[in-house]
Amino acid sequence: MKKITSLLIALLTISQFAQAAAKSEIITMEIKENKADCTGVGPMKCHLVKYKSSKDWEYFYSGFRNFKYQDGYRYKVQVKRTKLKNVPADASSYKYEVVKVLSRKKIKAKETDAKAIAFLGKHRWKLLSINNQTLNNRTATMNFDVKKNSISGNTGCNGYGGLVQFTGKNKIAFSNVVSTQMACLDNDIEGEFLKLVSLKNLTYDIADQTFNLYHHQKLVAIFGLVA
User: Fold this and answer.
1) Alpha-carbon torsion 74, 45, 170, 227, what sign?
2) How many CA atoms lie within 13 A of 217 on its CB side?
3) What is the dihedral of CA 91, 60, 27, 71, to 10 degrees?
4) Terminal Cα distance for the chain, rounded
5) Contact 40, 63 (CB under 8 A)
6) Of residues 171, 164, 159, the one with CA closest to residue 144
């Protein structure tokens, strides 16, 4: 009887192991050299990652097990991703465990900033949301002239122009912003937009083809890339 019981326990253990294994997979991920401000349950810092199919960096709200991250280094890792059951609504559905570090490369901050600034200058940007308000009809635009350290665009009514400075790691400052004075009806975006570009202590990041602005780590505006 004891032998039968032991055999049943062994079979049950093997079955449970097989089920768990079937819910896990090994994937390759790239982890960016710096974290970005993001909002989960509250304001937090998120890794930026790329999967095999990623076109741009994506926010990663979960943590990595068995991984010692050092700011300033870009990693390529093999990760065991396991599907979890009965997780809370605000928690990740997966557990991520690093099984192998494939590469670890030191990235200079100036090199990172230069690439981000160049990317901003190559594209036109359209305001998608401001102060948690999603914009569907009227919106604003922003264009960067990297060589002249200037910005220009439309507030949703008037044209505007000004200066921009990238003053440190992910820090951005607008100044001398002036706009035309045409009167426009039903334009509630212009005032908020001009107030936005007058704020101090702004930071930014670029993720998944969006240009995001933060004020004291709070997300205040999202711009989308215009093709």
Assistant:
1) positive
2) 11
3) -130
4) 72
5) no
6) 164
* Rounded-to-integer distance, Cα 137 and Cα 19, Å: 49
Asked if residue 128 and residue 209 are part of one domain, the reply reads yes
215 beta partners: 202, 218
The rounded distance, in Å, linking the Cα atoms of 50 and 30 is 5
Query: Given 79, 107, 135, which residue is the final one in a domain?
Result: 107
Do 120 and 220 lie in one domain? The reply is yes
Q: How many domains does the chain have?
A: 2
Q: Residue 142 has which token pair?
A: 């922003």
Dump pLDDT digits (tens) for 128-185: 999 988 887 778 999 999 999 999 999 988 999 999 998 777 889 999 999 998 887 6
Task: Residue 183: give the domain boundaries.
Answer: 111-226
Residue in the structure block whose two tokens are 């997300």: 219
> If you search the block for the tokens 């993001």, which residue do you land on?
38
**Highest-confidence segment of 61-70, 82-91, 107-116, 162-171:** 61-70
Element (H, E) at 144: strand 141-145
Look up the pTM and report it: 0.55
* Nearest alpha-carbon partner for 191 in 215, 151, 160: 160
Q: What is the C-alpha separation between 187 and 210, in angstroms, rounded?
A: 24
Q: Is residue 4 situated within a structural domain?
A: no
Does one domain contain both 124 and 208?
yes
Q: Are residues 205 and 100 in the same domain?
A: no
